[in-house]
Amino acid sequence: ALLFNASEGSVFAVASLRQALAGIALQNLSVPSSGLFTEVTGLVPDGLTVDGIDYRDAAGDLLPTIPDAKALYMQARQGMASSDFNGVTILLPQGSGLTETVEQINGAWQKDCSLFFSVEEVEPEEFQKRLENGSYTIALAPVQAEGGSVYTALAQFSPTGGGLTGYSDALYTTQLSASATATGSTRCSLLAACERQLLEQAVAVPLFTQQKRLLVANGIEGLVFDPFGPVLDVTYATKSK
Description:
Elements: E1 2-4, H1 15-27, E2 37-38, E3 49-50, E4 53-54, H2 55-59, H3 69-76, E5 89-93, H4 99-113, E6 118-122, H5 124-133, E7 138-140, H6 150-155, H7 170-179, H8 184-200, E8 204-205, E9 209-210, E10 220-221, E11 224-226, E12 231-233, E13 238-239
Parallel strand pairs: 5-6, 5-7
Antiparallel strand pairs: 1-7, 1-8, 2-9, 3-4, 10-13, 11-12
């Protein structure tokens, strides 16, 4: 997903600017030809359940449409100077295989917005640290659901769940908190409302989804899986008896 640093004081704290750039990027994006990815249906990965209910079937397609992203961009730029974008870079983990994707996005922004950002590729460990501490303006990063939990996937965007992107909104926090104690279809609805809010506010912009999965037998520990590769490191893997 394309992540904008939406923390207070950031140039991308303005929702309309995020929405405009997201719309322009998506209109000019194609799925990589590596065979690892397919078109996306939402921010939350497909195939997850909530209390036995297929979450994506219940939530539906929540991807927003921005009919005239370029006009929205011109509106968002009112009162902003070109210097406000100084130092903006697109952060990318080395070896991700997404260079072509970044070039497509950057090219679209240059064509429609006269914006062109440098790309900063860093080692995966450094990439993860910078995501966690907010040391980026734009990043291309996988959105994962640890343990197959829809709640966990969305909670990482809340101030108390990791603060990814620096997004802070009272309604989001309230509905996410309510979903933790709700059950069944009510819980699905609350989680879907949170996902919809992230998408409509362009806090995170899903580009495509990885269609291959890793199945691990019981007792296997210590596997390191690179979601961009995918590359599997078994150096420290163990199997309990």
